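dumping the sequnces here before i forget
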Amino acid sequence: MAIGAISSASDRPASAALHRVAADNATDVGAIRRRIRTGTYRGHTSGLAPRHVQANVVILPSELASDFLLFCQRNPKPCPLLAVSEPGQPLLQALGTDLDIRTDVPRYRVWRDGTLVDEPTDIGRYWQGDLVTFAIGCSFSFEQALLDAGLPLRHVELGRNVAMYRTSVATQPAGRFHGPLVVSMRPFTPANAIRAVQITSRFPSVHGAPVHLGKPELIGIEDLGRPDYGDAIPVADDELPVFWACGVTPQAVVAEARPAICITHAPGCMLITDRLNHELAS
Amino acid sequence: MAIGAISSASDRPASAALHRVAADNATDVGAIRRRIRTGTYRGHTSGLAPRHVQANVVILPSELASDFLLFCQRNPKPCPLLAVSEPGQPLLQALGTDLDIRTDVPRYRVWRDGTLVDEPTDIGRYWQGDLVTFAIGCSFSFEQALLDAGLPLRHVELGRNVAMYRTSVATQPAGRFHGPLVVSMRPFTPANAIRAVQITSRFPSVHGAPVHLGKPELIGIEDLGRPDYGDAIPVADDELPVFWACGVTPQAVVAEARPAICITHAPGCMLITDRLNHELAS
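..and the predicted 3d for all of it:
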């Protein structure tokens, strides 16, 4: 499983137009979930049900679950846990009254020993009694809060993926899981960068405040124009690059561990939950 | 009245040692106030009663008071008002049960038509029935919160005044009062800069969050090594300069207006109030 294969794992080809259309028309989370569950909708979830929390999904065998749980506990900024299932339990009642992880992600990726073997729209045939689901907060929630506050998101305006970078900052390892922190970058003017710190600080369960701003070289990023994942996003002369811990971090770490089986959401095809973004605000 | 004359108006020659000694020994605000009131103590107030709110003081004739009040309302970041007296009322009960503005500042400056005419330890002989006192929040409160959070303050470590700069950013004028925003600068690593935004955002009544960070040229600061007021403070290669709206702003604006009479605190000799810093936190 090449790192490149998960290049957009927690982010998506976003567009301002998609955001607008979705905000107008797609707010009935029940209807959206039914279309996803039946396989009618198998696309990106950016802008779908924009008031609702979306989640990164990692499903692992229980023998690895306690190490991964510990990894998330030790690295809460890249791995903010929204919910963890019991082994074999496909329902995630903490995130939705009828939410079934086997059917309610638009598209999955199934990995065996680190190799991508399938990209199905449901995972019923892969389900095992020992699988544990981890739902991890996603930047969509804080991006919606930034947009609501009138802050521009360059990657959304350009219809691109957010730019993501492997840093020289190591995560805190746990058992088989270790690797570098991956960050996403959004450019802001200094005044908007300060506002973005304030706004995202209120959302610790979806990556929270930035981990760095300005001076990318201090965290091992040599060329902002060449992200490791996602798309290059221009930073204007009057802007600072602002870096948030990214949900690609746990996926990259799991990829390196090459578990016998692992199931994730496909890039940009997140789990849409019943939770509302504003419920997450501290 | 030259601008240079107020070069340290809201800040002080701070030192880490002074902070420490004061924190240990000088927490009895009543005893401190008695020493100030009797003229026994006439020095800087940095580190005195460090849990207590200190204030910038501007005293103006009532004919100018409504313009100045409007100026503060329009510019809350440099001019966060803690209290405004009735004309001729020397007691500031909002800030202390027995607080008398005629005696309770260690040292004052008296200005007539823009010229410094006296630097007394009480202003009884200058008191007029039309004088209005403005008590304006001071960065000491948020600096204490930054120190409490373990963030280093370079100017305190070096025993220097904070560096202050006139910017190219205009304040919102009101009547006779207008002029540039003055900012104070503190250097922080990017991670500490983010933490400083979070911490100072909780203190809107003492300047609140930074107004700018990184890229000093965008706000008209051409050389960080040459502050307009206070002392030069070095910024390391792995640090960003972080800028807060500064209480020197209203003093510079008043100086430009050249009122018939104006009384301020002497640089670094602030009004110590009964209010506690933590009461101000949102």
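The two ends of chain B are 37 Å apart (CA to CA).
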